[in-house]
Specification:
225 residues; alpha+beta; Alpha-Beta Plaits; 5-stranded mixed sheet; binds guanosine-5'-triphosphate
């Protein structure tokens, strides 16, 4: 008869199983930690990509000098807003603003001062607009503001307030440069003054040039000509 001698005692077996359990738990913890690290890395990468995309998107629509929207964005927005205005039968006004005698600022104080003056004006524009308005640097010292759901009379009143702000504010934060700066404005409403983007812009531009002719530092509403 063969005797069956256990290789390990019951206590030893329980101990071994306990150790195995601990090792399995430690392995699971390691795997969970690795998973958490890998998820965190992927999240950071995704956030970095999202920030980069957002920064690139902003760069592609903003004017670097003034921080206002650029001309390309304005043209896209104007077309979109015209379509919305047609659909909703709501008024849409366009304000065109041109800094007066800006060449004298550059010639008298230098291009860097001219740039700083443009930034001051852009800041006043930003402070004066509603969230739904879109302000852009159209080119050089010409800015445009698109005012959805706003009839010409109201747009002209708001342009007049902005004109007074610009004429009353120090053009340079440190006082260097010209004592005052002014701007002229033209205001037109869709569809009364132009049935499409080009015609609306032409109407606002004509009003602006009338403001220049009549002595500058004033707001002219299309239709007043
Ligand atoms: N500093 C600076 N100057 C600019 C910029 N873009 C255009 N200009 C200048 O703006 C000036 C525009 O001059 P003009 O078109 O003669 O007009 P103005 O002197 O403002 O005269 P009016 O519009 O008739 O009142 C030119 O001297 C341009 O060089 C810019 O980004 N920075």
């Amino acid at each position: 008869m063969r005797l069956c001698v256990p290789l390990v005692t019951q206590d030893e077996l329980v101990g071994m199983l306990h150790l195995e359990g601990l090792a399995a738990q430690a392995k699971l913890r390691d795997e969970q930690e690795q998973l958490a690290v890998s998820l965190a890395e992927q999240l950071a990468l995704a956030l970095g990509n999202a920030r980069l995309r957002e920064s690139l998107r902003r760069q592609s629509v903003l004017d670097p000098l003034t921080g206002l929207f650029n001309r390309r964005y304005f043209e896209e927005t104007l077309r979109r807003e015209l379509a919305r205005s047609r659909r909703m039968a709501s008024p849409l006004s366009l304000v065109v603003l041109d800094v007066d005698h800006f060449k004298r600022v550059n010639d008298g104080y230098g291009h860097a001062t001219g740039d700083a003056v443009l930034r001051t004006i852009a800041q006043l524009v930003r402070q004066s607009i509603r969230d739904c308005d879109v302000a852009c640097r159209y080119g050089g010292e010409e800015l445009v503001i698109l005012m959805p759901d706003c009839a010409q009379q109201d747009a002209a009143r708001r342009a007049e307030a902005l004109r007074a702000d610009i004429a009353g504010a120090p053009p340079m934060p440190d006082g260097a440069g010209p004592d005052t700066i002014t701007a002229s404005f033209g205001v037109a409403e869709f569809p009364i003054h132009g049935p499409d983007a080009e015609a609306l812009f032409r109407a606002a531009d004509r009003a602006l040039y009338q403001a220049k002719r009549e002595g500058r530092n004033r707001v002219i509403a299309a239709g007043q000509q």
